[in-house]
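Input (structure):
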């Protein structure tokens, strides 16, 4: 693969994990005996040794992370990174990460959920390659379930054609100049991911095939699924 542009990855982990209901912030929970965030950072390093990593965390979690980095020295050895303070929403955390990247550099920037540690190296490489070709790339998979949407006129859930549905994942990769422009906007409630922010500029989003294992660890059963999916990797 002939990559030309400099590559950054912003790993957003500025949330508080309310749905996980865990005393330990979910990004620090151990998966195969190592913090989730280590697995996430490592996948990007495995994809591109030269990549620059930016980790976004709430300020009050910096000290816990620094302690984890002492307890697991492989984190810093394998995945040196720049630590940035997060914001009130995912949008604001992405924005903080983007601000940490120098303006003058031409680069491709992936924004990835810290709690998606199972993204495959192949998916990461494929997404950067597509972003280099099309200007942006967002991982997505087809729905395996039937889908219904609430209809306010009929007051009932009506079926949707699932062949027209995509489940959106991360990483979501963009040219830095586009991200800088997009994230100057005011926050809007429908900004549930970075693609929805960039799209407001009138830019078409290019979806690329993701992997079903790339789950977002959101609720307690996701930890069990993640442990099961990584079991062979650790033996
Ligand atoms: N203010 C925020 C909110 C979320 N995130 C990050 O965005 C990713 C996806 O969000 P989600 O799974 O919703 O995480 P939380 O917001 O922590 O969880 P919850 O909504 O259950 O509180 C996570 O890596 C999370 O840390 C972030 O960086 N900053
Ligand atoms: C960015 C994302 O993971 C794409 O599926 C998702 O939108 C994050 O949503 P959350 O409510 O912040 O978990």
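Output (sequence):
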């Amino acid at each position: 693969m002939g990559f030309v542009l400099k590559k950054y990855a912003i790993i957003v982990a500025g949330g508080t994990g309310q749905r996980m209901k865990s005393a330990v912030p979910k990004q620090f929970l151990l998966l195969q005996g190592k913090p989730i965030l280590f697995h996430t950072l490592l996948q990007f390093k495995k994809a591109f040794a030269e990549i620059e990593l930016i980790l976004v965390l709430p300020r009050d979690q910096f000290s816990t992370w620094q302690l984890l980095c002492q307890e697991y020295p492989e984190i810093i050895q394998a995945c040196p990174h720049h630590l940035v303070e997060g914001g009130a929403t995912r949008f604001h955390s992405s924005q903080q990460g983007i601000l940490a990247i120098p303006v003058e550099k031409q680069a491709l920037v992936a924004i990835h959920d810290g709690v998606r540690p199972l993204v495959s190296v192949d998916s990461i490489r494929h997404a950067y390659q597509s972003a280099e070709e099309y200007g942006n790339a967002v991982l997505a998979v087809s729905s395996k379930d039937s889908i219904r949407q609430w209809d306010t006129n009929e007051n009932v859930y009506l079926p949707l054609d699932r062949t027209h549905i995509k489940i959106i994942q991360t990483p979501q990769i963009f040219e830095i100049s586009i991200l800088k422009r997009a994230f100057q906007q005011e926050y809007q409630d429908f900004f549930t991911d970075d693609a929805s922010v960039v799209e407001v500029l009138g830019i078409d989003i290019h979806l690329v095939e993701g992997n079903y294992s790339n789950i977002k660890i959101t609720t307690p059963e996701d930890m069990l699924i993640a442990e099961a999916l990584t079991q062979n990797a650790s033996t």
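Notes: The pocket of cytidine-5'-triphosphate (ligand 1) is lined by residues 12-19, 27, 56, 86-90, 93, 113-115, 216, 218 (CB under 6 Å). The domain at 6-136+170-234 is CATH 3.90.550.10 (Spore Coat Polysaccharide Biosynthesis Protein SpsA; Chain A).
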